[in-house]
Design brief:
By secondary structure, the protein is mostly helical. It is built from four helices and no strands. Helices cover 74% and strands 0% of the residues. The termini are far apart.
């Protein structure tokens, strides 16, 4: 693969993931589609609506960060290794928010 193909591949994967995350976050935070969140008993939560908003907002924020990171890769501010490392670290943001929100609203 030449460098242009690698760049196009990385951008395609990260931007499609970003769009999916923003879409899911919107559906969960704004439309309150709680059934898309697995492993949570909403009857035991003190404020299920705020819990759902927190999870949805974290997904939207992750998608926006993916878009910004893709732009930084495209204009050569970050390299491929930094891109992969930051993408991996940012991917854990919704998990951290999920755990904190579960403790807060339980």
């Amino acid at each position: 693969m030449n460098p242009n193909e690698v760049l196009i591949f990385c951008l395609a994967i990260s931007l499609s993931s970003a769009l999916l995350l923003v879409f899911l976050g919107y559906q969960i935070a704004v439309k309150q589609k709680q059934h898309w969140i697995n492993g949570v008993d909403f009857s035991k939560l003190s404020n299920p609506a705020e819990f759902t908003k927190a999870i949805g907002r974290s997904l939207i924020n992750t998608g926006v960060i993916f878009c910004i990171l893709s732009l930084l890769l495209y204009i050569n501010v970050v390299g491929y290794l930094a891109f992969a490392l930051i993408l991996t670290v940012v991917s854990f943001l919704p998990l951290v928010v999920f755990i904190k929100a579960q403790k807060k609203y339980s």
